Amino acid sequence: MRILLLAEDFYPNTSGGAHVRWRFSELCAERDHDIVVYTPRREDTPAEETVNGVEIRRPYKSTPESLPAYLSLAFPLRILFSVRLLLHLLFSDELSTFDGIHSASNTLHWVAKLLAMRYRLPLVNFVGYTPSLDPDIGFSPKLIFEWLTFRYCLGDVTFCRTPQTRDRIRSLSDTRVSILHGILHEEKIRRIGESIPSDEIRDQYDSSEEENLLVFVGRMTPVKNPFGALEVVSRLPSQYRLLFVGDGTETEVVRSAVTERGLEDRVDFSGLLPHRRTLHVIATADALLVTSRTESYSAVALEALALETPVFSTPVGVLPEIEHEKLRLGTVSELPRLVEDARFDGQGSLDRTVLEEFSMGRYTDEILTTFEQLLDE
């Protein structure tokens, strides 16, 4: 098959969504499908390139590098990008060569819908994070856009992450909607599990075997709530240390809060790390802290569970649906007690059940099978 993928966040970006879209594309190419991806251009990326058999087209920029896409101020610029992309593709001769369209970004679903109607192509949508998952969002243009998207702009089949999103889509659309698991890069995680440089990582962050190393991995932004992780460690005994992995708009504010609380000896910042190094850190840590206000899935939580690292998390996204002995859920105020009550029994290696259930191979196979079924109808 020849598939057109529309995605706002894609290689070489390092977010969870970008990893999913990139790995899906890689696996499609490995399975001898032709996949062409349209995504925004960044300052350090070419307009066109082919990587691991995946054709990547970046015709226009979306938001400035200094303006994170999740901010409300960026939303009009993202919509403008989607309009420009629609016009670009409508005047392209390439659309007639595709067998199907896969849209994986909220602001691009309407573009995919119009293209699918114009060229009579099957359309499969994927909805990850969406504004209605955020209980604190209040009135927002993003919620109106979400309603319009779910009501009018979804295709033949839609996959999503959480029961909440599935039920909202069902209430607004006649698309066939179901939950699709899968986010883990199986081969990479298997390699990580076989060789963990734990001593070197602990030495780098001055953490001894007698201390418990907790790690927070994610964007330093309000929705990820890094202050929640800081609150947790501040209420734990001194043998607990915290490492922040990631960067974002709240980094300097969190650093100032660490100083104000006198926690400089117990809290470290690594900044943004390559994905492989991040997985090594997660595998080395005694536990992962997830203090997000909202999530659709929490890739890092599932990566930690696959690497047999305990996870202490707020009850966000799909996590309340998962039963696992190393997953403990609670509010930020409850997490310190849960951490203290837990037994840290050393590193594991791999949880093959988690790895299989949430693998990107399984995710990719489901989407490709869906396209094949739609083409046969």
Overall description:
There is one protein chain. The chain is α/β, with parallel strands linked by helices and about 375 residues long. The strands form two sheets. It has an eight-stranded mixed beta sheet, sandwiched between helices. Strands 11-10-9-12-13-14 form a six-stranded parallel beta sheet, with helices on both faces. Helix 6 (about 185-195) crosses helix 10 and helix 7 packs across helix 10. Helix content is about 40%, strand content about 15%. It folds into two domains: about 1-180 and about 360-375, Rossmann fold (3-Layer(aba) Sandwich), CATH 3.40.50; about 190-355, Rossmann fold (3-Layer(aba) Sandwich). Helix 8 (about 225-235) links the parallel strand 9 and strand 10. It contains 14 helices and 14 strands.
Indicate the topology.
Layout: E1 2-6, H1 16-30, E2 34-38, E3 48-51, E4 54-57, H2 75-90, E5 100-103, H3 109-119, E6 123-127, H4 141-152, E7 157-160, H5 163-172, E8 176-179, H6 186-194, H7 198-204, E9 212-217, H8 226-234, E10 240-245, H9 251-260, E11 267-271, H10 275-284, E12 287-290, H11 299-306, E13 311-313, E14 327-329, H12 335-341, H13 352-357, H14 360-376
Short structural summary:
The chain has 377 residues and is an alpha/beta fold. It has helices spanning 16-30, 75-90, 109-119, 141-152, 163-172, 186-194, 198-204, 226-234, 251-260, 275-284, 299-306, 335-341, 352-357, 360-376; strands at 2-6, 34-38, 48-51, 54-57, 100-103, 123-127, 157-160, 176-179, 212-217, 240-245, 267-271, 287-290, 311-313, 327-329. Helix content is 39%, strand content 16%.
